[in-house]
What does this fold into?
Amino acid sequence: MSEELKETEKDLSSGDDPTETEKDFPPGDDPTEKDLRSGDKLTEKDLRSPFKSEISEASEQGMADCYQCGKCSAGCPMVDYMDLMPNAVMRNVQLGLRERVLGCKTIWMCVSCETCSTRCPQEIDIARIMDTLREISLQSGMANHEMKDITCFHELFLRSVRKKGRLDEAGIVMNFKTRRPRHLFEDMVTGLQMVVKGKLPFIPHKIKKRSEVEQIFKKCSD
Ligand code: SF4
Ligand code: SF4
It folds into this structure.
C-alpha cells in the first residue's frame, strides 16, 4: 500500500471526517448558553409569546424543528460580525424573545448566502427565516439603529427592483448618498471609473413584463 493511501486510512480511522471543516465550540462556550447567561431573564410572557408561530407562519418554516446542533453557525461566513449566532437566533425565536431578535445586528449582517439552509440537518431554510425577520423588524420599527446604513440600502434596493424590475445602480447610489450624507464623498474615484467604463449606467436598462415583478411584490406583501 502506498504511503499516501496509508495516510488517508489513518485520517479516516482517527474518527475525524476530513470533509468537515466546521468550527467546534469549546465546552461552556456554546453561543446559545452564553446568550441565555447574558443577564436577561426569561419571563412567562416571553414563553407564551406568539412570536414563534408568527415567524413559523410568515417564513413557512418549522421553528420547533431546530434542535440546536449549531451546524448553521459553524458554516456561516458572517458569524464574526454577528451579535447572535444563527442558531442563537433560532433559539431566541423559539423562546419568544421578540425584541432581542428583531433588534439584533445578525439579521442585517446575514448576506443570504444560504450556507446555513444547505447544512441544516432538519432542512430548515434559515436564510428565509433571516429574510422574514428583516421584514418584520422594519415593519415594526425595531431595526437596530447601528444598522441604519444597511437598512437604508435594503429599502432602496427593494424599491428599485419593485419600480424598475431590476436594480438601477446609479439611482440607488444617488439615493443612498442623499439619505446617508456622511457617505457623500466615499468611493468617488471608483464611482467615476465605473461610469467611464459603462458599469454604472445613468439610464437603467428596462426589462420586459415589469408588471410581473410588481405582482411578485404584491403577493409577498399579502
Ligand atoms: S442547523 Fe438547523 S437544527 Fe441545527 S441549530 Fe441550525 S437551524 Fe437548528
Ligand atoms: S444565509 Fe446568512 S445566516 Fe445563513 S450562512 Fe449565510 S450569512 Fe450566515
